[in-house]
Amino acid sequence: MKHRIILLLISIVLITNVRAQDCKPDSSKRERITTANVPNDYSCYMEMTRGWHKYYGSGALIHPRVIITAGHNLAYFPFVKRLPFFLFRGTRKVDLYFGSIDNKTYKAQTSLKLKTGKNKFFKSAYWINAKINRDFSIIILPDSSLFKKAGGCYKFMPLKPDELPGADLHLTGSPGDKDLFEMWTQETKNFSIIDSSLRYDLFTVVRNSGSPVWVKKDDMIRLAGVHSRGFTNCNGAVLINNETYNQVVEWCKKSGIEL
Hints:
This protein is an alpha+beta fold. The chain contains four helices and 15 strands.
């Protein structure tokens, strides 16, 4: 009985903390990136082709041959996933631009054809019951030439919850209310960890999907999350915890990569 009461009190505190977070995303706090800098050089503007249509998003380099982005950027559409037509089977081609400032200025560029299980990996059922912890995917690059041009990558390792409180949380990506190829960034201290996700008041719109959410810690640019979507009043990302990290490690091993 005593343990049940303690658990009930803990639950009440957690629920209170979630409800207490007041998110009011403000687009005016974003800053456009106009010169080469880190970590923008490690962040990418993405043009994805499904069938004959193009879609746009963001991503991050986490290894000389690995890019991470939102699962729904690469996966199939939920409502047509069982149809055999190739145009519905997710992203089949992607154009990547790292360190992008505009359509003439970027640090590195490559184009890839994608095949699930070969150089494209994602978790299924990412859309069911708002399973934000499943909304991430990776692209395997054929070599490290893009990495050499970008000059580095985000530090990718599982973050412990006690490492984040008090830190400045940043988001860098290509927002859909701005011109193509433009990259914008914003920071906040107003964030919380809920289950396997980050919730924050950073302003995001379509095309921010897959944007790296990062912190600077011990002189390293560390990936903390991958932006997924908005919620009732906050925006949210997949948290780079042990579960997320181990899944990426498993995918990489299938391509002969030791993360």
